[in-house]
Amino acid sequence: MNPAGRDATFIEQAYWIVLNRPPSALELDDQRRNHLNSDQVTLSRGLLQSTEFRRLRTAWKNRQDTHTDPAALEQALQRLGTNEFFVERVYESLLARKADEGGKQHYMTVLAGGERRTNVARAMALSDEFAVRWTAVPYDTQLCELANPAKWDNPEWMDLLRSLGLSDDRFSMHRKPYELTQFIYGCQRLGALTEQADVVSIGAGHEIVLYWLANRVNRVVATDLYEGYWTERRGREGDPSVLARPDDFAPFPYRQDRLTFMKMDGRQLDFPDNSFDIAYSLSSIEHFGGMEGASQTIREMTRVLKPGGILALATEYALAGPRGEDVFQPEEVHALAQQPGLELVEPIDERVWNRYQTAPVDVVHDPYRTPHMVVHVFDTVFTSVMLFLRKLPSA
Ligand SMILES: C[S@@+](CC[C@H](N)C(=O)[O-])C[C@H]1O[C@@H](n2cnc3c(N)ncnc32)[C@H](O)[C@@H]1O
Hints:
Blueprint: H1 8-19, H2 25-33, H3 51-61, H4 70-78, H5 83-95, H6 101-112, H7 117-125, H8 128-136, E1 145-146, H9 155-163, H10 175-189, E2 198-202, H11 208-214, E3 219-224, H12 241-244, E4 259-263, E5 276-282, H13 290-304, E6 305-320, H14 330-337, E7 342-344, E8 361-362, E9 375-377, E10 380-391
Parallel strand pairs: 2-3, 2-5, 3-4, 5-6, 8-9
Antiparallel strand pairs: 1-10, 6-10, 7-10, 9-10
Helix pairs in contact: 1-5, 5-6, 5-7, 9-10
The structure holds S-adenosylmethionine (SAM).
């Protein structure tokens, strides 16, 4: 027994209660090395923030059984000790506190009445107190910012990332999933993602977020040149075959009647004024002909937006080094954000990369390396910037 009383049995109990399974030999060894001090109730490093627990809890919320052999699980929980001991351990493992008398008596009565221990532990994991504890962990919520690793600590943001079918492995951290997720996160937080919303994407290619939106809004129109350089390039983002066969590019089932692909120059949009609730463009406007092309595109996006509508942009932002092709300098990003008829929903956090240490990825010679948040092309170092602007009512 170590000084904190955190021996193998203690650790195994926590695993059974939180993850409904015993720890592996590696996990047990790891937990034993890293026990906390005796005055700290929580012990089980990482269990509650593990993807495994998050998935289990979501399934429990949806009333799905998660164990292949529920009877064997119940037997394992029964073996942990008396009802009183079990309830105390559930409180410690999930709520990180000693059981209060009222709570303890309640659950002991429930168990004496024949309720399964499995259900008592799950009820605690789904309790309001647990939910408050879960959301009490501080996390970053900014919308207008440089690509930000802190978003991988934001549970709401991570749920959106997963909903796009993207990897939640921090080692896969990449600007592209950042842009897609930050875009829908921002629209959601701004209250713009509604069943009634009409959305247009500029330089859309066949990005997965189009299909995601089709399942959630009234209408999505994807526009792109669908010709030239981008039809041949590695990712074939501008592949024109999506115009005829959108289903071939769908990452998951989607509401086909909600999504339309149109061949259109982003600098000259063929839509009436005030048509859309959201107009957005991800990793595209930097390729539309420098500041002039990008400014013209933003003017067009503003024109087709309804007053109060949201204009969301992800583009390239220079952090250091000489001027690079298709990468905007900070003052150019400011100029793009100051187009008439628009206002930023909040100031841009441009200091993100003052807070982190990273080795920029060489996109010319080593393009697949992750984390892939800051990159360089020769000596130009850059990242993504995400902007959310609102069309002024008077515009
Ligand atoms: C880097 S890709 C990004 C595609 C997509 N937004 C994504 O994130 O996968 C840039 C896209 O901009 C499109 N594009 C380039 N110039 C354009 C223009 N003037 N108008 C509309 N689309 C354009 C290209 O065809 C290409 O699909």
